[in-house]
Amino acid sequence: MRAACADALSVLAASRPDRLLVVGPVAGAGAVRHGEGARGGFHGFGVPVNVRLARVGQAESARTTDDRPVLPASLAVGAWLLENAAWAAAPVSGLAVGEESGTEECLALGESLRVPEERLAVLALGDGSTMRTVKAPGYLDERAAPWDSAVAKALADADTEGLAALDPATARALGCAGRAPWQVLAGAARGTDLTGSLLYEEAPYGVGYFVAAWS
């Protein structure tokens, strides 16, 4: 999956964006923005790794770390991926979207990100269902596999309406954290002529994971 993520970032870099927005889920509702240089880490998961949401070579802020926002886990993963890919193509910022945010809120948020004459790249992060097998974190739910298949098809086809149709209540019931970020992506990409490519689709440990690239 790491190789697929690196390939997806290469597609984003090749689009020559003016800026990159990393979008990921967070508990609750609403949205929180994180500027370039925001810090995060994985100490809460027992991994002593710190990350910065930034381009390669971006200078450290003069501010102390105490007054910086702390990245949620999803954006920390994004920062880690960018660091490992040596991302230098464009400035980076983050947007944490509450998993309880409604569909229309997410779509409107995505649409608001578009600026005329600006090339925006979006790195949307989020898991699929957590109920694919009896050993999955959420145990087995027969709805999980069809749900993940629908998500995979929408991502593969760059189908913004397919992502917009994902039901928030079903997403919560299936432990799918990616619904809100994907719908922000759908709002940002609506009306464009993007095409999609599904680079990875598996369910290790009963959790649905996908990697796709739109260009």
Short description:
The chain has helices at residues 2-14, 73-84, 103-112, 144-156, 160-164, 168-173, 179-189, and strands spanning 19-26, 31-34, 39-41, 50-52, 92-98, 120-124, 196-202, 209-214.
Helix content: 25-40%
Number of domains: 1
Low-confidence stretches: 62-67
Q: Please report the distance between the alpha carbons of the first and last residues.
A: 19 Å
Question: How would a textbook summarize the main sheet?
Answer: 4 strands, mixed
Named CATH architecture: 3-Layer(aba) Sandwich
Question: Structural class, from secondary structure content?
Answer: alpha/beta
Average per-residue pLDDT, rounded, comes to 94
- Share of residues in strands: 15-25%
Query: What's the multimeric state?
Result: single chain
SSE order and pairing:
Layout: H1 2-14, E1 19-26, E2 31-34, E3 39-41, E4 50-52, H2 73-84, E5 92-98, H3 103-112, E6 120-124, H4 144-156, H5 160-164, H6 168-173, H7 179-189, E7 196-202, E8 209-214
Parallel strand pairs: 1-5, 1-6
Antiparallel strand pairs: 2-5, 3-4, 7-8
Helix pairs in contact: 3-7
